[in-house]
Amino acid sequence: MALWRLYYHLVWTTKERQSLIIDEREEKLYAYIISKADELKTIIHAINGTENHIHVVASIPPKISISELVQKIKGSSTHYINNVSSGEDIFAWQRGYGVFSLGRKQLEEAVIYVKNQKEHHAQGTIIKSLEDFNQDDNPPQKFYM
Question: In this predicted model, what pLDDT tens digit does every residue of 80-127 receive, in sequence order?
Fold first, then answer.
């Protein structure tokens, strides 16, 4: 058995940043993502977001690549939500994702940030570099203290 301690903060958006993560879908979506991650031997430390994007703090085992994990979760969750949800809009994720590696010391701060996503957006206390990950003008920087 291998020993590993890998922590990542992942972010991805709904198709064209549409408001597709409605209240009726959110709980089912997050529960599905957690169960799929568990199936892939990935630990979800926190998951939350707004109506148009999600943040996931996860420990991904070294035998699966980050891109493979995200692809499997995004693809299967799209299929799942479109088959169990009664929303008028077809659910879809935007291509791509953001990923930030974390040290053990940043894990707790990342979990707190993700768990308080809605409050951060409502109060304007977001960490911009974590929210605008598609922008080319965001050089790597320290996000957590």
Answer: 999 987 667 799 999 999 999 999 999 999 899 889 877 766 666 556
Pull the structure tokens for residue 126: 């977001």
Residue 127 burial (C-beta neighbours within 10 Å; 0-12, 13-18, 19+): middle
Q: What pLDDT is recorded for position 26?
A: 94
Q: Are 39 and 72 in contact (CB under 8 A)?
A: no
Report, as an integer, the average pLDDT of 31-41: 98
Instruction: Give φ, ψ of 122 to 5 degrees.
Output: -65, -35
Count the residues in the chain: 145
Q: Is the pLDDT of residue 138 over 50?
A: no
